[in-house]
What we know:
The protein contains twelve helices and five strands. It has helices spanning about 15-20, 25-30, 55-60, 80-90, 90-100, 100-105, 120-130, 150-160, 165-175, 180-200, 205-210, 220-234, and strands at about 10, 50-55, 80, 110, 115-120. The strands form two sheets. It has a three-stranded antiparallel β-sheet with strand order 3-5-4. Residues about 130-145 have low confidence and may be disordered.
Amino acid sequence: MIHPSRVHLVRTREMLAADMGMAQGTFANKKPYDETGFPAQVSSAGSRTLLWDGGQTAAYLAGEPLPTLPAPDDPAMLLDRQEAAAELGVKPRTWDGYATDPTIADHVVDVHGVDHWPRPVVRAYRDGRPGRSAAPGRPRGSSNAVPRGKARDEVAALLDAMPAITIAAVREELGVAAATAQRVLAELRGERIAALITTHPHLTFDQAAEQLGYPPAVRRAARSAAAHLMEETV
């Protein structure tokens, strides 16, 4: 995580190699950042793009004491993909879907090609997202199985928050079987498409699906459910 006041100081591997007068290949082979005492990365564990605070790396290279960085729990911190997901208690892949929401996407900060989001924005979404009380993410250590009666409500909450959610993402969040996730998603999308067409008869199936944010890949399963419902109302 990175404090907004220090974004301009952030260094990449390529920038550090230049700072140390090393060729990129030499830097990659020697990995001086693994040496004892080298400043810790400000990128999250497992990130493909490694980032460091330039104020700390400059001090290290000059043999000077490292400046203290803002505390990790500082409310103003910028969070990367993994950190934002952890803040919400979801998988990074699920966060990828949430990040398309305008309330989040409008605040993204690019730090050398790595998307970051202000912690207050992430928390505001966490506290206000649709269905939060029903499906805030499965607690660690909890049972993988969602009671049958609750599956529909929890999937509906996830669909509210992320219209393009995949079967795999539902399984990760709720621990339900793939068949259950597929069936409930198709039913819910079909119902919502049918309801929209009923109130706006000029819309085609695809137009209604587009308005609801359902990508083409998931429409086939929803089409039969929507058609069945619309037949019942005729």
